[in-house]
Design goal:
The protein has helices at 87-103, 111-127, 131-144, 178-181, 194-202; strands spanning 5-15, 19-26, 30-36, 54-62, 69-79, 167-169, 174-176, 190-191. By secondary structure, it is of the alpha+beta class.
């Protein structure tokens, strides 16, 4: 038997009486959705690896029909489950799992994404929940997904002077200079203070 795919669990959903529908992010296949037969009754085959804050090895196989994979077994490679009692740490980890599932397309692997996730867990274990660490992970995932916002210059015209009057416009791709801000409209548009921009650039 192969050693399995290195990955993390993003989400689990009960399926029928004893199965689980598991969304994983793996280094080899990226985001995959798999059926773990009997996972709700058989703990031995999955060894505690079907939970958040665990880096595991997952035995995956493509199912004969449909888009779902089959998950036959799993083992824990490393774990940070001691954080489960920290409400803020769990909230950070859960949010990033949801963000990975939303941003990164199915079966389009970005191996660095695993490093980003594990890096956050290590940061949580060492120093607790941190807004700066969370912003850093958000920006890293946006970059991997090809959606990193422009912060060094105006996303509309390329102007680098964003010292005053700049706004952040997600629909236009990031920071918008004072001159171009007049045409930025929408619920997501917000003033972008120099200190805030500098903070986002430096995290």
């Amino acid at each position: 038997m192969s050693e399995g795919e290195l990955g993390v669990v993003l989400k689990t959903t009960p399926l029928r009486e004893s199965d689980l529908l598991v969304v994983l992010y793996t280094a080899t296949h990226g985001r995959v959705t798999a059926v773990a037969r009997g996972a709700r009754k058989s703990q031995r085959r999955f060894a505690g690896a079907l939970q958040l804050l665990v880096l595991g090895r997952y035995q995956l196989g493509r199912r004969p029909k449909g888009e779902l994979w089959g998950l036959d077994s799993a083992d824990v490679e490393r774990e940070w489950t001691q954080l489960a009692s920290d409400v803020f740490a769990v909230a950070h980890a859960s949010y990033i799992a949801e963000l990975v599932a939303a941003l990164l397309p199915a079966e389009s692997p970005e191996p660095e994404a695993l490093d980003v996730i594990v890096g956050l867990w290590e940061s949580l274990a060492e120093g607790g929940a941190s807004p700066a660490a969370l912003r850093n992970v958000e920006l890293a995932l946006l970059e991997l997904a090809g959606h990193q916002p422009a912060l060094a210059s105006c996303a509309a015209c390329g102007e680098r002077d964003l010292a005053s009057g700049a706004v952040f416009d997600p629909a236009r791709g990031g920071a918008i200079c004072r001159r171009c801000a007049a045409t930025s409209r929408g619920a997501g548009v917000r003033p972008l203070e120099p200190g805030t921009r500098a903070y986002l650039v430096d995290v």
